[in-house]
From TrEMBL:
Presence of keyword Hydrolase: yes
Keywords: Autocatalytic cleavage, Hydrolase, Protease, Signal
Catalytic activity: Cleavage of a beta-linked Asp residue from the N-terminus of a polypeptide; L-asparagine + H2O = L-aspartate + NH4(+)
Role of this protein: Has both L-asparaginase and beta-aspartyl peptidase activity. Does not have aspartylglucosaminidase activity and is inactive toward GlcNAc-L-Asn. Likewise, has no activity toward glutamine.
SUPFAM superfamilies given in the database record: N-terminal nucleophile aminohydrolases (Ntn hydrolases)
Stated name of the protein: Isoaspartyl peptidase/L-asparaginase
Gene Ontology BP annotations: L-asparagine catabolic process via L-aspartate; proteolysis
Active-site residues (renumbered): 204
């Protein structure tokens, strides 16, 4: 079992470590999302991740499949307000929860959903897309209609909106307003950030697993990015960006700056580097470094804005 989170996080599980073993040891890895995590929220993150990885590993210990393990692990985080998925999802500009999720098997079967509302476990709905339809992704009202057809229960509108998500959106809007008020005084365009540092962004969650039969699975779930425009589709729901799995190579789940990840199809890029001989660590570093070098203006911080966000983040800390 492994538990970790950071500034840019991905899980890359390689089949190479098991190739010459007489018996494959089941493994599940989880990540609880990258982002600006207030110090006081770190303990609840770790507690939630421990619960998540235990749920997944319990499935594997009992002889269950990697798919069941990944789903079980992610569902725990979707139920936990500490994570940006399910109940803990960040909000769009209208103050609503819109969620994305995806899952992929080593045989290249895949399912995904995007812009889902009022569904407690988007990862389970993504699995149903994979298992019950000839398609890969459903979005918006179509995804919710499919959920109803499959008997997936819905939760009351607004019940997935957490107190911390509401506060984070308020912080985001105040910072945005402050930025608009001050931008007109900036004469040097190089001082203007291309990306506002977002205090409510606490990252996507995900898991990868390999079971006793050598089956690999990757899954990812998210509420997106704090203050996103209504209808925004994240990298999490894009097979090849947020999630990718190839049974001959490995499995990857990513979290970080989603729109950047989507532009380079990060998960698939890592798998291809692994296929060409790199270890999971080498492939991940190579692809992330390349992504950063090509898109290095997507996460620029501006001192004045950072100070403003820090003050609001401290206020969030004292209210939680």
């Amino acid at each position: 079992m492994c538990i970790k989170f950071g500034l840019l996080m991905l899980l890359a599980c390689s089949v190479g470590v098991c190739t010459f073993a007489t018996k494959i040891e089941p493994i599940v890895l989880v990540h609880g999302g990258a982002g600006d995590i207030p110090n006081m929220r770190v303990p609840v993150k770790f507690a939630g991740m421990k619960k998540s990885v235990k749920a997944g590993f319990d499935v594997l210990k009992a002889g269950g499949s990697a798919l069941d393990a990944v789903e079980a692990a992610i569902k725990v985080m979707e139920d936990d307000e500490a994570f940006n998925a399910g109940f803990g999802s960040v909000l769009n500009t209208d103050g609503e929860v819109e969620m994305d999720a995806s899952v992929m098997l080593g045989n290249l079967s895949a399912g995904a959903v995007s812009i889902v509302r009022d569904i407690a476990h988007p990862i389970s709905l993504a699995r149903l897309v994979m298992e019950k339809t000839p398609h890969v992704m459903f979005a918006g009202s179509g995804a919710n209609r499919f959920a109803k057809e499959q008997g997936v229960p819905t939760v009351p509108p607004g019940s997935l909106v957490s107190p911390s998500a509401k506060f984070s959106l308020d912080v985001f809007k105040r910072v945005q307003a402050w930025r608009m008020e001050t931008d007109h005084t900036i004469t040097n365009s190089s001082d203007t950030p291309t990306e506002v540092k977002n205090p409510g962004d606490v990252g996507t969650v995900g898991a990868v697993a390999i079971d006793a039969n050598g089956n690999l699975v990757a899954g990812t779930s998210t509420g997106g990015t704090n203050g996103k425009m209504v209808g925004r589709v994240s990298d999490t729901s894009m097979i090849g960006s947020g999630t990718y799995c190839d049974g001959d190579v490995g499995a990857v789940s990513t979290t970080g700056h989603g729109d950047t990840i989507a532009k380079v199809c990060l998960a698939h890029s890592i798998i291809k580097e692994m296929e060409h001989g790199k270890s999971a660590q080498e492939a991940a570093k190579h692809c992330i470094d390349k992504m950063t070098s090509r898109l290095n203006h997507t996460a620029v911080e501006w001192d004045g804005l950072t100070k403003k966000v820090t003050r609001y983040s401290q206020e969030l800390n004292t209210t939680k």
